[in-house]
């Protein structure tokens, strides 16, 4: 499981880069696509997608791990596709590369970009499998350094510069991933992340308060464990035990003031995009599990507003050789709900969101 982690580029995407080669059109729409936005979502390898709708420039930026086959750049980091309409996309470009000499040598997972006090902050997860961490009592695995680093830029288009001397936002002793920025109703920033099952056996979602410079000012707080969701299923391991996965927390406050969280784990039929709700309306919860939003090996999604005001969800599907999938959503006051699959944008004729 979670060998997420080999990002295998689809043959169609590779064909786009081969000298003298052109990929065949995927539809009549793609045949007429030219200029700065020649790609369609089925031609774009991506995992853990994150979209920023930049109203200042009328541009959608889709962030994902850098793939050398798409950018021609082998550095470990983040690439971004750009679009004006969520259907036609630019070739990606590297917006952040991990500097040489940093402690990490792998990962670049789950990039997110958030605006805070006039600047834009990139959070993305790196690791070093050779840097062992102490195992927790009863664990059958040896954890290693994994954590979300932060970089900063003056616009969502980058380029982003590494912050905090390349140290993770939470202590390096915790094996963590998929960090996100949440700003609460009082305007205070929080860092929320998944505490990795490799270290904990049962993965958790945790939060730590930040100061105005986005540095931790308190101890991590447990929000919930993966096995709190009745739909989630443990994953048997070669060591003989069973582990539970937490991935991809991301927050949305409804028009009625309800605070909900997207997160992912594994269900009966593979990877699942799920929803939880804070009963207090605050990040510290308590959190109740509302169940899956999207199943069928889909997940690690995020919500954003399109320029026409629609609430949208982007996920990757399938887990291996992942591509982007878009849904139109409804703010239902006490939760969010799927309205429909936006197949006119992602060109995937999939019969149902379940």
TrEMBL record:
<comment type="similarity">
    <text>Belongs to the glycosyl hydrolase 43 family.</text>
</comment>
<feature type="signal peptide">
    <location>
        <begin position="1"/>
        <end position="23"/>
    </location>
</feature>
<keyword id="KW-0326">Glycosidase</keyword>
<comment type="pathway">
    <text>Glycan metabolism; L-arabinan degradation.</text>
</comment>
<dbReference type="InterPro" id="IPR006710">
    <property type="entry name" value="Glyco_hydro_43"/>
</dbReference>
<dbReference type="GO" id="GO:0005975">
    <property type="term" value="P:carbohydrate metabolic process"/>
</dbReference>
<dbReference type="InterPro" id="IPR050727">
    <property type="entry name" value="GH43_arabinanases"/>
</dbReference>
<dbReference type="GO" id="GO:0004553">
    <property type="term" value="F:hydrolase activity, hydrolyzing O-glycosyl compounds"/>
</dbReference>
<dbReference type="InterPro" id="IPR023296">
    <property type="entry name" value="Glyco_hydro_beta-prop_sf"/>
</dbReference>
<keyword id="KW-0378">Hydrolase</keyword>
<protein>
    <submittedName>
        <fullName>Glycoside hydrolase</fullName>
    </submittedName>
</protein>
<dbReference type="Pfam" id="PF04616">
    <property type="entry name" value="Glyco_hydro_43"/>
</dbReference>
<keyword id="KW-0732">Signal</keyword>
């Amino acid at each position: 499981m979670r060998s997420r982690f080999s990002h295998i580029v689809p043959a169609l995407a590779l064909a786009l880069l081969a000298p003298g080669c052109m990929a065949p059109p995927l539809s009549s729409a793609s045949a007429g696509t030219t200029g700065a936005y020649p790609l369609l979502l089925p031609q774009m390898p991506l995992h853990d997608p994150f979209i920023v709708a930049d109203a200042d420039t009328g541009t959608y930026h889709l962030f994902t791990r850098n793939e050398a086959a798409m950018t021609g750049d082998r550095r470990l980091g983040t690439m971004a596709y750009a679009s004006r309409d969520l259907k036609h996309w630019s070739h990606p470009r590297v917006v952040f590369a991990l500097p040489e000499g940093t402690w990490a040598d792998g990962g670049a997972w789950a990039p997110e970009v958030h605006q805070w006090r006039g600047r834009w902050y990139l959070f993305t997860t790196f690791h070093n499998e050779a840097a062992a961490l102490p195992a927790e009592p009863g664990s059958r695995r040896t954890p290693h350094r994994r954590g979300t680093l932060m970089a900063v830029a003056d616009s969502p288009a980058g380029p982003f510069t590494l912050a905090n001397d390349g140290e993770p936002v939470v202590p390096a002793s915790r094996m963590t991933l998929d960090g996100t920025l949440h700003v609460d109703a009082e305007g205070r920033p929080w860092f929320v992340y998944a505490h990795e099952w490799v270290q904990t056996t049962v993965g958790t979602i945790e939060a730590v308060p930040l100061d105005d410079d986005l540095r931790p000012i308190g101890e991590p707080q447990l929000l919930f464990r993966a096995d709190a969701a009745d739909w989630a299923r443990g994953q048997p391991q070669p060591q003989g035990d069973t582990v539970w996965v937490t991935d991809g927390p991301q927050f949305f406050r409804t028009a009625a003031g309800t605070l909900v969280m997207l997160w992912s784990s594994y269900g009966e039929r593979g990877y699942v995009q799920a929803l939880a709700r804070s009963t207090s309306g605050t990040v510290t919860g308590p959190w109740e599990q509302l169940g899956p939003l999207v199943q069928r090996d889909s997940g690690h999604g995020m919500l954003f507003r399109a320029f026409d005001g629609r609430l949208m969800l982007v996920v990757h599907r399938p887990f291996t050789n992942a591509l982007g999938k878009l849904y139109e959503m409804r703010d239902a006051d006490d939760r969010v709900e799927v309205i429909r699959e936006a197949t006119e944008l992602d060109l995937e004729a999939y019969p149902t969101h379940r």
